[in-house]
Design goal:
The protein is built from 8 helices and 17 strands. Strands 1, 2, 3, 4, 5, 6, 14 and 16 form an 8-stranded mixed β-sheet that branches. The radius of gyration is 18 Å and the shape is globular. The mean pLDDT is 92. It binds fe (ii) ion. Fe (ii) ion binds next to loops.
């Protein structure tokens, strides 16, 4: 097994010489180490079926059964991330971190490309450790010790789905709005100590973070907007171009991601398995 960092070395690494369907002794330890170091790892030319996908995810942790995405008809562990040729919106088209609205946010996901458009449909990843390290001093001081509010209701709740594009929403891609409506918002530290790498990581994202706890709304919005603008800087990003057999394993606590929506008229089907995580610890503001 060899590990190649991405072309610009910003976030992510490609792992070569491994068969995810038949892991050799020691492979898992190497994959875990690279995952902790790079935030997202990519594999090419994997011929794994659904059962092997599930087995690999299970080797990494407990599987989260998704509440909002359509499930694979035969494997409820697999959430379908699909865009049909006639659909305009895609899933995950803005920067976000999956499951940050959970009290114990998911560790990450294993995404397998099943059907790809002839071109387009790439995924961008952003390193939240690199973004934290590059924060201007005043912003770093400003967020020390703060917590942020995360919510799913504005994305998966009944009000959000009522406004969704008529052609897109009813196709069974996303559902279970009552479950989202019933979810309480949660707070997490704005800066966490990453449970695997020990690095300081920014844990706010434009998809699900709706406020900074305890701040007046205008101040909260301004601070989040400033943090998001900082993290949107391409110097923290990498783009992954999917091919048949591509697999990505990303860490939701260390990265943001965004799915390109540039292949209208073509179908794209990805299979996602999400792995349960843990409560997140705040970085000590005194040593920030
Ligand atoms: Fe996502």
């Amino acid at each position: 097994m060899t590990i190649e960092t991405r072309p610009h070395g910003k976030v992510g690494a490609e792992i070569l010489g491994v068969d995810l369907g038949h892991l050799a002794p020691g492979d898992l330890a190497h994959i875990r180490a690279a995952f902790a170091e790079y935030g997202v790892v990519f594999f090419r030319d994997q011929a794994i079926d659904e059962a092997q996908h599930i087995a690999f995810a299970r080797a990494l942790g407990r599987i989260n059964i998704n509440r909002f995405f359509a499930a694979h008809p035969h494997h409820r562990e697999i959430a379908l991330v699909v865009k049909e040729p006639d659909q305009r919106t895609n899933i995950g088209g803005g920067w976000h971190t999956d499951h940050s609205y959970d009290r114990e946010p998911a560790l990450g996901s294993v995404l397998v490309a099943r059907e790809l458009p002839p071109q387009g449909g790439a995924t961008d990843f952003a390193s939240m450790a690199a973004a934290y390290d590059a924060l201007p001093d005043d912003l770093r001081e400003c967020i020390a010790g703060l917590r942020a509010v995360h919510s799913a209701r504005h994305v998966f709740g009944s009000k959000a789905l009522a406004y969704a594009d008529e052609r897109d929403a009813p196709k069974g891609r996303i559902g279970n709005a009552p479950a989202a409506d019933g979810l309480s918002d949660v707070t997490h530290p704005v800066v966490i100590i990453h449970p695997l790498s020990g690095r300081r990581v920014l844990f706010v994202n434009p998809g699900f973070t709706i406020a900074i706890a305890g701040l007046p709304e205008a101040q909260s919005r301004a601070l989040l907007d400033r943090l998001f603008a900082h993290c949107r800087d391409p110097r923290f990003h990498e783009t992954f171009h999917w091919q048949p057999g591509s697999v990505a394993l990303w860490d939701n606590r260390a990265t943001w991601h965004l799915a390109h929506n540039d292949y209208h008229g073509h179908r794209r089907e990805m299979h996602r398995i999400t792995i349960e995580g843990q409560a997140l610890e705040a970085a000590d503001p005194l040593t920030a």
